[in-house]
Amino acid sequence: MIRHHRTAFRRAPLTAAATAAVLLSGLAGGGLAFAAPTAPTGLQEQFAAAAKEFKVPAALLLAVSYQQTRWESHQGLPSTTGNYNVMGLTQVDLAEVAARAAAEPEVDLRGDGGPAGKRGVAAAPVSPVDSPALHTLDAAARLTGRPAAELRTDTLQSIRGGAALLADYQRAAGGKPSADPADWYQAVVRFSNGGVAAAAGGEGREFADRVYGTLGAGAARTTTEGQPVRLAADPAAEAKSPAVDRGVRTEAASRGAGRTGLAAADPIECPATAACDFQPAAYAAANGDYGNYTLADRTDQDVQYIVIHDTEGGYAGSLSVFQNPANQSSAHYLLRSNDGHITQMVADKNIAWHAGNKTVNQHSIGIEHEGYALSGASWYSEQLYQSSANLTAYLANKYHVPLDREHIIGHDEVPGPTQSAVAGMHWDPGTFWDWNHYMDLVGGRPAADRGYVVGGRVVISPPFSNAYRPTVNGAPLQPANFVYLYTAPNGPLIGNGTQNASDWTDKAVAGASYVVADIQGNWTAIWYDGRKAWFWNDGSIASADNRLGQYLVTPKSSTGSIPLYGRAYPEDSAYTGAGVPVPSPNISPLDAVLPAGQSYVMLSSTPVNQSNGNDYFVSNQVNGDTYYAPNLNDVAKTVSGFQRYFAIRYNHRLAYVSINDVRLVPAATNVFTSGERVQLLTQTNNGPMSAAANYTRGVWEKYRPTAFANPAPEPGTTETDSLTYVNGQPHAVALTGGHLYTADRNVATGVWSDWYDLQTTGAAGVLPSSATEATVVTMGSTMHVLALVDGRIVEAIADYSAGTWRPWADVSAVLGQPAGALTRITAAVNGSVLHIDGIGTDGRIHVADGDYARGRWGYGDVTGAVGVLDWPLANLTTVTSGSKQYLLALLTDGRILQATADYAVGSWVPWSSVTQATGGGVYLTKLGATYTGTTLRLFGVSGDGRVYNANGDYARGSWTGWMDIGVPGVAGNGYKAKSLAVAGTN
């Protein structure tokens, strides 16, 4: 970035009147206006109507708009380059831009903290050069006969204006009206250039090629205002047009200022799918120093970050700033807004002066994006996003930079190198840069993960849409890329935080990762800036990062704080050994500290899933280093010592900690994320405990006490539990003293609710007498609670989609069973059929099938099909998969038998020995089972209270042996279980 702040849309107003004055400047004769609402499907219809009126192919009009704004109106507010509404038509007041740019303060971009004469102090940004490309909105207003204000705010008038311009440009290019989009290529080129044909350098052709690429591939999305728009793919239109393969690169002639004191020509380093040129930044003596970058010989190991900037100046003017050595500022790349053209200015091997932090400059590549100091500006052109993401993906691949938001950062995330520099650090690209969209284009936005836990990682990820529009002073409600942080739930903003866009201290930006410090309902606290900082999350604002093998940084000492650093310099002796003067100050801590007991995310340069914490500790260290190049033509001499650091996400910005001050701790993970998951609930000698496993990810949650109140009406009463998943959430039913209770677990927090009485009015209702058995199953969004009362089966149903209960019904009466007919029951669901299996007082196996789709029940004795049990029964459980039901019996001698019903063929397979298949060796007294994927998950409690797990993979026809899950590395803790309930989901 050339300047310190973009005051255009990020400064708090002095007064309401001042706000109005600023926002109205350049808007002829009108107040701050918002885009007029359209009918639910109106936007698509408006494109069709305008295309018909001006005889422009509707598909072409849609493709042009998509490449301008992705069909967004942006509420009638301008982009950073003066584009308005869905067609991105331009209206730039050059006098206003010049006045606002001139008011900017000077800043140090070299970032070495040296004296004024040796600092990169940027000059004022140069206003854009006036051209028709800055006034297409006024031209469209003349062609349509509508006021310019309408084209800024009314989507139909914007689309009409775009269509009128295309028709006018088609005539100017010598083309005729045509229904074939392929015939309009030159008109599209002129659309990008304000009606001017492409110059020798091809300006506008990159935009046109992207438009025709969109025509070929098609597009569909719903805008932030809820407007669904679709463009059907038309590969023929792209193929027949003059659109070129974007893999062809060109070196355009210079369109900026003359090349002052340029270094030898450098090769263009650019993606094959982009057209780029090289216009070198200045490298010459100036004012007793030199500028505008440092010669170096960096390799892929030296480049660790890609830093995103905006210029607050026009493309040509910004280029001239970088080509004046007196300005002592540069970036590796500059992107033009109207067509996304990429200009390289500094070879990647050299160190550009762009970040205001010498450590970050030394280890990063800087990308500047054209943008003017416009009042009310609130978005960036789609061409900038497209080209920049393409460039970033190329650079990340070339230099092995991780595709994440800890390594692809904004200038606002760069730390102040010293305490004196902190207050003056930049905050571009600002609150309205769409990080979600950008990282999607880069290919580095991780899939949202369900549920984070205290001690785990959370990623800030608010939707950049009208569903989330936080208040920002001086700007209307609109999508933004951050969440506000508070001192407590419903408390004030942290620190002296404000709602000014420029105030980064109370904001966590999209894509940033933090450690969860606390959870209270929908409020989440993260460790941020040495404190707990709270934000509201209804499930759409942040997501978990539950990848395995991640580590966090925490102070070694449990009692003392440790220092933080804004740069990663080596120890003093390293300079002496290199024959280089020691800077003063050298290793200088910031005022901020990392308090004991807090944890922060470390910027990992290696893949996760490291099984060895020591390897992780070594591989992610940052070398303490700097460079020395005091004179023109000096190639940077690297000074590196023994001091090592970790880079961390401390607040909105990054920071560094010494490896000598910290230790690494594993990040907690939530096993309730997607995958094959199993929930366990058990009564132990230490009270009720919960544990869980995610078999897809190969991770266990440790045993943890449940938070719910004990429902037992009598001390010492033995409790039995049963579990099921409803809509991905574990639900439990407890039978205590003949009474039934229910509770559920929040998958986002891992916290269980308190038990509540199931046998009350408004729930399942009162039972006629005490229950002796209970089980629970799920069918769709309904939970079916089955109980055995006086030997009869009764059922109550909770409908979670309707939020209602259906009270107890007598299933045995429907089946014609006499009272006292059953002593044990278990149940499972197959589609819309509920299977209830029971042991009768006669010791025989009884099966009842309830078809809820057809509203009928069936009942039978299957003992003849499966065989008579040869030993008394201790436990009975059942699971289903596909058309099969697996009935499992635990006998009092510890053996486990299985019988299988195949409902597709209408037959049973008799009892067979699971004990033999698992290898035995464990005497069990209780049994539980569930089915995930293709595997039957079997759990049992041994005579000494240990919980074991064996898995039968029915796709492969094999069983594992029994594993004690109470040992370290699994659920741990070794609690003695008295009961067991399990449930699984995929």
Structure report:
With 986 residues, the chain is α+β, with helices and mostly antiparallel strands. It folds into five domains: 33-92 and 128-240, Lysozyme (Orthogonal Bundle), CATH 1.10.530; 276-442, Lysozyme-like (3-Layer(aba) Sandwich), CATH 3.40.80; 449-546, no CATH class; 550-668, no CATH class; 677-874 and 965-985, Neuraminidase, CATH 2.120.10. Helix content is 18%, strand content 31%. The strands form 15 sheets. A six-stranded mixed β-sheet has the order 5-11-10-13-9-14, sandwiched between helices. Helix 3 (58-69) crosses helix 9. Mean pLDDT is 85; it is low at 1-35, 115-123, 245-265, 607-612 and 712-718.
Secondary structure layout:
Layout: H1 16-24, H2 42-54, H3 58-69, E1 83-84, E2 89-90, H4 94-102, H5 136-144, H6 148-153, H7 155-172, H8 185-193, H9 205-217, E3 219-222, E4 228-231, H10 235-240, E5 276-278, E6 284-286, E7 289-291, E8 293-294, E9 305-310, H11 315-322, E10 333-335, E11 342-344, E12 351-352, H12 358-362, E13 364-369, H13 382-399, E14 408-410, H14 419-422, H15 435-442, E15 457-460, E16 482-484, E17 507-509, E18 513-520, E19 523-528, E20 531-536, E21 542-545, E22 551-555, E23 562-565, H16 572-578, E24 589-594, E25 600-602, H17 613-619, E26 622-628, E27 637-649, E28 654-658, E29 662-666, E30 677-684, E31 687-694, E32 699-705, E33 719-726, E34 729-736, E35 739-744, E36 756-757, E37 771-779, E38 782-789, E39 792-799, E40 804-810, H18 811-815, E41 822-830, E42 833-840, E43 845-851, E44 856-861, H19 863-866, E45 873-881, E46 884-891, E47 896-902, E48 907-913, H20 914-918, E49 924-932, E50 935-942, E51 947-953, E52 958-959, E53 963-964, E54 981-985
Parallel strand pairs: 5-11, 9-13, 9-14, 10-13
Antiparallel strand pairs: 1-2, 3-4, 6-7, 8-12, 10-11, 15-18, 15-21, 16-17, 18-19, 19-20, 22-25, 22-29, 23-24, 25-27, 26-27, 27-28, 30-31, 30-54, 31-32, 33-34, 34-35, 35-36, 37-38, 38-39, 39-40, 41-42, 42-43, 43-44, 45-46, 46-47, 47-48, 49-50, 50-51, 51-52, 51-53
Helix pairs in contact: 2-7, 3-9, 5-7, 7-8, 8-9, 13-15
